[in-house]
Here is the input.
Amino acid sequence: MNAQLKTQTQTLTINGRRLWDSLMEMAKIGATPKGGVCRLALTDLDKQGRDLFVRWAKEAGCAVSVDQMGNVFARRAGLDDTLPPVVTGSHADSQPTGGRFDGIYGVLGGLEVIRSLNDHGIQTRRPVEVVIWTNEEGSRFAPAMVASGVFAGVFTLEYGLSRADVDGKTMGEELQRIGYAGDQPMGKPIHAAFELHIEQGPILETENVTIGVVTHAQGQRWYEVVLTGQESHAGPTPMPRRRDALLGAAKVIQLVNQIGLDHAPYACATVGMLQVHPNSRNVIPGRVFFTVDFRHPDDAVLAQMDEALRVGVAKIVSDAKLELTKLEQIFYYKPNCVASVRAGASRFGYAHRDIVSGAGHDACYLAQVAPTSMVFVPCVGGISHNEIEDATPEWIEAGANVLLHAMLERAQN
Here is the structure.
């Protein structure tokens, strides 16, 4: 960065009011009664959110492109537009009962960086891009972060497009339906990548720290499990003769919880989805499908949790005279994922600390193809994936200021 530009950008800040207003306008799409949002991936509401972002990006002078997984790229040209870009972004899809900031803050924070550069007439040497990554949440199509995974070469394009929801609709079909099946090939060189996000945990707020500098993200293993027993009438069938698949599933759920407790304090173990067949009140369940989510920052411990699950499930199935129709690990990444972010926080005197992310983020896959960092800001009560998820305008503005200067530094070299 030359001396004149360095002086010009020394005290540069984003427009906090404009960013907040953009977040609140986006939150109207899929708004829920408790103040949250429901914009499941590749639904009509997700399309509306994408369309609004695309309109805003074009108004900011960006060129917009869409790749084959529906990832949306808004590009602000650089002085040397042949150079690999500095990229930021996150996701626009939400949980069924999601909040107003999870994911979309990273997208609109990136857009605000571009708007602020425009406001001050600052040209960067490298192009700057803001991305919406498709299906980060994984709540409609499993696994999570599949589109950024395809971009990074972790998954094949065919695998990504073939992911199906509970109704059998694939990502490829739904991308076509909503008009976001792009023609840009997957993957391209990136100079550096940043992701701005609420913490989704209580540490920053509890310690009165404004900025979290993410150094690592927890490793994750996701599983799909199917237990099969035998449907039978709930009245005439004696208790000792029952092969109740739901009872077996309940014991596995207890096992999963115990595995998490056994590897405290950093382990997390969750059964988040359950489907019971035939789901009739007077029929003993004959088949149960459910999911398991393991997380830990140490890959060796994750492997121990995996072994405990497999051994424990085998015993439960044998004791209950059930069949283990499926126990498949469908998603796995090792723990991974930062001077530009620290420098940006120090510039404004924001209290900051290093932090490990307990959640998965698209940045974890981008870290496999480019230098990557994340910027966290607090969220009220540490609550996320919930309609009452909240953050203050001051936190939101601070995070975007750090993002602006981190990106500006990398975009000039």
